[in-house]
């Protein structure tokens, strides 16, 4: 593990003006962000907005077609991908899952499984794990490499709300214990870990960014999920000014349709605000916090993603 870089020092990874183009279309463009040691950065945005693409550029799995992706030398990355290419018809134990992509000693395996609370499942078949146990196994696999940077692409898939809180706690404790940087891709547009230092919202480019300082404190939220939940999750609310159509073109709030979107293309109300703290966009009242914290409302938020 790298010990030299400290938060505020040289970033572990940085993207500047980075974009990926495929089949004549920019999947994502003009992406700028950094992750330092000890920092938690969360990428949010609607489906297809370029979160995974940006995370993959950051760790070097994808090369940007414009702009730069830089990493400190000797960086070790622990990556939990959104999708895992595993043949589920083959028996696979948790122990074997851990060693599919890197050589690990039995001690490293057990230490990592212990850290995520599933040491007792080392010999269990992966297909028998619950959703939450499976996510923990993937997390164990990533942390067993003792990464400088932990990248979690939608780590809460298949995890219920109580499990979400437990996983967020776990991610925070890994950060606190090891000092690694964390890049999270959130499945949810509005709810992010309270410990997140920087939220970056993508919508084909960086739509806005800021700190999720306003943790939900509403009585309804507390009653539903308890004070513990309120201290763990934060609501980050804002609106987009354009939608990505299924064919890749972009529908803007003014009704115009263009091939691409870009912060400087004159169609974005918030163009030029990308580097500001969008505290004016955060929701501080309780009503939305309750809504955002309950699972089904997320889909509605996304469906309503026409954005003024
Ligand atoms: N190799 C590729 N070739 C062409 N298009 C691609 C490729 N990879 C991704 N895309 C497209 O790029 C866009 C961004 O994809 P990406 O996976 O980064 O989105 P995302 O924000 O992570 O979405 P989700 O929330 O649905 O996981 C999508 O429209 C996707 O279909």
TrEMBL record:
Under the heading SMART domains, the entry gives: AAA
Q: Which GO terms describe its molecular function?
A: ATP binding; ATP hydrolysis activity
Q: Where is the composition biased (Basic and acidic residues)?
A: 246-291, 298-308
Q: Which UniProt keywords apply?
A: ATP-binding, Cell membrane, Ion transport, Membrane, Nucleotide-binding, Translocase, Transport, Zinc, Zinc transport
The record's comment on protein family reads: Belongs to the ABC transporter superfamily.
Database matches in InterPro entries: AAA+_ATPase (IPR003593), ABC_transporter-like_ATP-bd (IPR003439), ABC_transporter-like_CS (IPR017871), Metal_Ion_Import_ABC (IPR050153), P-loop_NTPase (IPR027417)
Q: Which residues form the ABC transporter domain?
A: 13-228
Q: Which GO terms describe its biological process?
A: response to zinc ion; zinc ion transport
**What's the protein here called?**
Metal ABC transporter ATP-binding protein
Asked whether the keyword Nucleotide-binding is assigned, the reply is yes
Pfam families for this protein: ABC_tran
What is the scientific name of the source organism? Answer: Ciceribacter ferrooxidans
